[in-house]
Amino acid sequence: MITSPAVSGSPAVPRSAIVSALVLMVGGMAVIFDSTIMSIALKTLATDLDVSISTIQWVTTGYLLALGVAIPVVGWAQARLGGKRLWMIALTIFLMASIACSLAWDAPSLIAFRVVQGFGGGLMMPLMATLAIQRVPSGVNLGRLMATVSLPMALGPILGPVIGGLILNAGDWRWLFWVNVPLCVAGLLLAWRMLPADAPRPGVRLDWLGLILISPALVGILYGLSGAGGDGGFARGDVWIPLMAGLVLLGAFVVVQVRKAGTGLIDIGLLRRRSVGSSSAVMFLSGASLYGAMLLLPLFFQIVHGADALGAALLLIPQGVGALLSRTIAGRLTDAIGARVVAIAGFVIMGAATVPFAFADASTSAWLLGGVLVLRGFGMGAVMIPVMSVAFVGLERDVVPHASMIGRLAQQVGGAFGTAVLAVILESAVRGATSPADFAHGFDIAFWWAVGFTVVAIGVCFVLPGRTTSEPAPALVAPVVASIEG
């Protein structure tokens, strides 16, 4: 069991866990950067492949759908194959698909290869945390370890568009995928030499009913949310129909999994534990706030400040600098004073640093906004570490993969939800705008909503456990699971 005692007297994180985290980070960086690097390339791809934006956006949508569908099978696959073997298989899939994407001859072939790439990435994402956490013995604080594991997750949304913009400014779009190759090759070599092998458990059976329910559920939810940013928002049939169908299937999946009592595809019963239930709720809201802002900030700099795609990406670099600055501090504070205080402080900084954008217009100094983005990145980095680490405290080794899957799915769906809601709000706010002032006012409204997500997240953070973990699940999760079980 992994516990989180007071920092005084607790053993240090073992060297093997740090080494595993660093090895996993190398391969994981390829997946994280690739998830965000394409956001800057859609217009170029549409032009070069002679297709519409509505067609080429499937390069991103198909990737994200495959990513979400792959996550629920990680627990079973790890049990059957072993964590090291599964990591190397998934990284190989991602590597080969990246090369195939660079050789794509038209839009349909590129979309197909991106789906395969997304499936490999979806297998890797929960494994990054799982394999590192399972190397930690009882009584070791997790904050500093998670500062290493979660580093790519914090930097990817910020540096990915910058890397994409630099590549497109200097060369062909195909080089966007060759960036992954050295990271994947290095990740495979390091994993082969340095990741410890864990014995598979071949007797574990795949929960086919759970898989049949959760796969279309995630496709429906993510597909519906991804289309909500267009004309008509959530009122369009191709948005609300798959969204509602996905939610119904998700509800059926939860009922089935709870009644399986830990033998299903995902151990939903873990949500009754305070650490997992509260962390998942905060992960959903942090995903909404993080990825929602990823939509607003580049558009704000392009539409209101008149920057080109590369210029907008470069203007986001200060946010990455802030995220880097907070890593070590947040990890140490999480170990010393607990996740709750650190997460609340991080969200307060994030929210306060978003408020200036709600007053900004074309005349607002880019230097001032850059300074604000440093603070926003600092808060964002400070949030991720305690929220990710607290989910694993008090868990037995065998259920760590399930907690990792739950948290990753919560963040994935939360990100899609936040992006969809803010896209609808922004589209409505700028409808009919003709002047820079009109567009700036529309962005002001959307940024206030982003601040609202942060305020809600602060409230939910109060149910995160502090330095003890024996408490039951928070009131917002436990009754739901208990009622289904009954």
Structure description:
Residues 1-9, 468-475 and 480-486 have low confidence and may be disordered. The chain is mostly helical. It has three domains: 1-204, MFS general substrate transporter like domains (Growth Hormone, Chain: A), CATH 1.20.1250; 207-264; 267-481, MFS general substrate transporter like domains (Growth Hormone, Chain: A, Up-down Bundle). The radius of gyration is 21 Å and the shape is globular. It contains 21 helices and no strands. 73% of the residues lie in helices and 0% in strands.
Report the top-level CATH class of the largest domain.
Answer: Mainly Alpha
- Poorly predicted segments: 1-9, 468-475, 480-486
Overall mean pLDDT stands at: 80
Strand content: under 5%
Helix percentage = over 70%
Largest sheet: none
Class inferred from helices and paired strands: mainly alpha
Radius of gyration: 21 Å
N-to-C series of helices and strands: HHHHHHHHHHHHHHHHHHHHH
Oligomeric grouping of the chains: single chain
CATH architecture descriptor text of the largest domain: Up-down Bundle
The total domain count is 3
Any idea of the CATH topology of the largest domain? Answer: Growth Hormone, Chain: A
Q: Say how many strands there are.
A: 0
Discrete helix count: 21
Give a topology summary.
Elements: H1 15-37, H2 42-48, H3 53-56, H4 58-70, H5 74-81, H6 83-102, H7 107-133, H8 143-149, H9 151-170, H10 175-178, H11 180-194, H12 208-226, H13 237-259, H14 274-303, H15 309-315, H16 317-337, H17 339-354, H18 366-390, H19 400-429, H20 436-461, H21 478-485
